[in-house]
Design brief:
With 469 residues, the chain is of the alpha/beta class. It folds into 2 domains: 2-194 and 309-447, Aminopeptidase, CATH 3.40.630; 196-306, Alpha-Beta Plaits. Helices cover 41% and strands 19% of the residues. The strands form 4 sheets. Strands 1-2-4-3-5-14 form a 6-stranded mixed beta sheet. α4 links the parallel β3 and β4 (147-153).
C-alpha cells in the first residue's frame, strides 16, 4: 500500500488537477461507510429507498442540488453542481440481487436465507461515483472550473432498465460526456463492449381440468411452455456461438392433479450485436408460437429487459486510461490475502487474472459477457467505463463470493481506485474542452449513422415491482 500512496503523491505534484486525489482521500472514510451501510441493507430494483436516500442526503449535504423521483421512479435522482457547458456526468447504481444474501465470509453463509445481497457490488458503485462527484465539485470551486457536474442515481440496473426511462425523460439530452465504472476483479480500462439483450415474459393461457378424471377437457399451459423451451434448446445449435439464451419457469401450475391453465416463462437472449439479436429473437418468438399452436393455448408476450450493447469511445477511454494510471492500484494486507486465498479455493480452476496492485489500460475490444442499461446511455451520449478490483481475482459478479467481497475491505479499496480514476478523468474533461469535442466526434464515428432502438416504449411506465415477488 505504501508504494501506491507514494506514486499517487508524486502525481499530485505533477499537475494542479491531481489535487483532486487529496479531496478523494479526505472524504474516503465517509463514503466507505456509506457503501457498507448499503451492503448491510440490500434492496431490490426500484425499491432501493434507504440506499437512494443515503446517497441523496450525502450529496445534498456537500452542496449539490438534488432532484428525486424522476421518470416515474421513486428512487431515481440527479445531484448537480455548477452551470453551463460542458455537462459531465457520473452514474451510480445501488440495487441488489435476489437470493444472494451473504456475510463478509470466505465461505457461503447467507445473512438471511433467500434474501437479497450485493452480488454485483452496486453498494460500491453508487458510493464511489458519489465520492468522485464530491471531490470534483470541491476542485471546481477551488480552481474556478466552469461547467456542470451531474450525478445520476440510477435504480434497477439488474433487469429493470432504470437508465432507459431516464433517457426517455430527456435527462441525458444535454450531457456532453459520461464516465462510468463497474466492480470487477481487476483494474482495467479498454475499448470493450457488452452484450445486447432482450427479454420477455411468455405467458401461456390454457384450460384447467381434472388431470385424472377429465384430462381430455384440459389444454395445458405448461405443455405450451415446455414445447417452447424444447424448441429453444434445439435452436441453440443454430445461433452464433457468442449468443446466450437463459430462462426460468416462473409459474408452472398450481397442483399436479390440475391441468395448468396458466404457465409463465421469463427468457432473456443476448448477443454482442443488437441487429443479430433481433434475428435470433424472431426465431425465439416462433418457438413460443409453436408451443401455443401445439398445445392449443393462447400466447401472451410481455416485454421485460432490452439493453443495448455498449458503444465504446476512443477519446474518453484514453482519458480514463490516463486517470487510472495516475490513480494506481492497491495491495492486500496479510488478512486480506488470507481472505482472498480462501475465496479462490471455492472457485475451482480459473484463468489467471492481474492482482489489485496492477492497472491495465489498453485498446482491447473484448466483449464482456454481461449486459447493462449503461449500453443504452452509450448510444445517446459519449460514454466510457472501467472496472476496479473490488472482487478477488477470478471472482465473477452475481455470486455469493462477489457479495462477500463487496462488503469487505477489499471491495472498499477497489471502490477508492474507481473514485480516484473517475475524479481525475472528470477534472481533465473540465480542464480540456477540446477533449469533450473530440469525444463527440469519436461517438459519431462509432455510431456510423445508426440510431438507438429500444423495445421499451417512450410512454411506458417503469415496472416498479418486477423484482418483488
Amino acid at each position: 500500500m505504501r508504494t501506491v500512496i507514494l506514486f499517487a503523491a508524486a502525481c499530485i505534484g505533477a499537475s494542479a488537477a491531481d489535487g483532486v486525489l487529496d479531496r478523494v482521500a479526505t472524504h474516503a472514510g465517509k463514503f466507505e461507510g456509506i457503501s457498507r451501510q448499503i451492503w448491510e441493507t440490500p434492496e431490490l430494483g426500484f425499491h432501493e429507498n434507504k440506499s437512494s436516500a443515503l446517497l441523496q442526503n450525502e450529496l445534498r449535504a456537500n452542496g449539490f442540488t438534488v432532484k428525486a423521483g424522476l421518470a416515474g421512479m421513486p428512487t431515481a435522482f440527479t445531484a448537480e453542481f455548477g452551470s453551463g457547458k460542458p455537462v459531465i456526468a457520473l452514474m451510480g447504481e445501488f440495487d441488489a440481487l435476489p437470493g444472494l444474501s451473504q456475510k463478509e465470509s470466505p465461505e457461503m453463509s447467507p445473512v438471511t436465507e433467500g434474501a437479497p445481497g450485493h452480488g454485483c457490488g452496486h453498494n460500491l458503485l453508487g458510493s464511489a461515483s458519489a465520492l468522485a462527484a464530491v471531490a470534483v465539485k470541491e476542485e471546481m470551486q477551488a480552481r474556478g472550473l466552469k461547467g456542470t457536474l451531474r450525478y445520476f442515481g440510477t435504480p434497477a440496473e439488474e433487469g429493470g432498465g432504470g437508465k432507459i426511462y431516464l433517457i426517455h425523460a430527456g435527462l441525458f439530452r444535454d450531457v456532453n460526456a459520461v464516465l462510468d465504472w463497474h466492480p470487477g476483479d481487476s483494474n482495467q480500462v479498454s475499448l470493450g463492449s457488452t452484450l445486447a439483450n432482450n427479454g420477455a415474459l411468455f405467458r401461456f393461457h390454457g384450460i384447467a381440468a381434472h388431470a385424472a378424471a377429465a384430462p381430455e377437457r384440459g389444454r395445458s399451459a405448461l405443455d405450451g411452455a415446455m414445447i417452447m423451451l424444447n424448441a429453444v434448446e434445439m435452436l441453440r445449435e443454430h445461433v452464433p456461438q457468442e449468443t446466450r439464451i437463459h430462462y426460468v419457469i416462473t409459474n408452472g401450475g398450481s397442483a399436479p392433479n390440475i391441468v395448468p391453465a396458466f404457465a409463465e416463462v421469463h427468457l432473456v437472449a443476448r448477443n454482442p450485436d443488437a441487429a443479430v439479436l433481433g434475428g435470433i429473437w424472431e426465431r425465439i418468438m416462433k418457438c413460443a408460437q409453436a408451443g401455443a399452436l401445439a398445445s392449443e393455448t393462447r400466447l401472451e408476450v410481455v416485454q421485460s429487459t432490452n439493453y443495448a450493447n455498449i458503444i465504446p469511445n476512443d477519446v474518453l477511454s484514453d482519458v480514463l486510461g490516463r486517470a487510472m494510471t495516475k490513480a494506481g492500484g492497491y495491495e492486500y494486507t496479510p488478512q486480506e490475502r488470507a481472505f482472498a486465498t480462501e475465496i479462490q479455493k471455492t472457485l475451482g480452476t480459473v484463468a489467471e487474472r492481474p492482482g489489485p496492485e496492477k492497472v491495465v489500460a489498453d485498446k482491447s475490444t473484448r466483449v464482456t459477457m454481461a449486459s447493462s442499461d449503461s449500453g443504452d446511455v452509450s448510444w445517446n451520449v459519449p460514454y466510457a467505463n472501467m472496472t476496479a478490483a473490488t472482487f478477488v481475482p477470478g471472482v465473477a459478479a452475481h455470486t455469493w463470493q462477489a457479495a462477500a467481497c463487496a462488503g469487505s475491505s477489499i471491495g472498499r479499496k477497489g471502490m477508492l481506485v474507481a473514485a480516484r480514476t473517475l475524479a481525475l478523468g472528470v477534472v481533465e474533461l473540465f480542464d480540456k474542452p477540446e477533449e469533450v469535442r473530440d469525444a463527440r466526434a469519436a461517438y459519431e464515428k462509432r455510431l456510423g449513422g445508426h440510431k438507438w432502438v429500444t423495445h421499451i416504449e417512450a410512454d411506458s411506465k417503469p415496472p416498479l415491482d418486477y423484482a418483488v415477488k
